[in-house]
Design goal:
- The chain is mainly alpha-helical and about 110 residues long.
- It has one domain.
- It has 7 helices and no strands.
- It is globular and about 40 Å long.
């Protein structure tokens, strides 16, 4: 993943994101989620314009095949973005619906 947070230039990031259409829908969502995760940190935990919240809401209804190797990485990123932006309903959704993997979060978020 190329990101500005990791030192990638704006041009490198733009070129990388332009390749998304050549990837599976799951990989597209995973890459965009990582991009938004980094963006949230770079924008001091703000979602100016609500684009990230809209993205998170859209993924609430996406079914992910159990065979996807990075399924839980995606879920974890979605949870942390929601948490970082203080979007409590989305945070609860991703925490509840992914409790198999995220069960240990209860220890850290009490």
């Amino acid at each position: 993943m190329i990101s500005a947070k990791g030192g990638g230039s704006g041009g490198e990031l733009k070129n990388y994101l332009s390749t998304l259409n050549n990837r599976s829908p799951f990989i597209q969502n995973l890459i965009l989620t990582q991009y938004y995760f980094d963006l949230v940190h770079m924008q001091d935990y703000e979602d100016n314009g609500g684009k990230i919240k809209s993205f998170l809401n859209g993924l609430k209804h996406v079914t992910i095949d159990n065979e996807e190797l990075y399924k839980y990485e995606l879920y974890l990123l979605l949870y942390w973005i929601s948490n970082n932006l203080k979007l409590k309903s989305l945070e609860s959704h991703y925490k509840k619906n992914n409790s198999t993997f995220l069960g240990r979060l209860n220890e850290f978020t009490k």
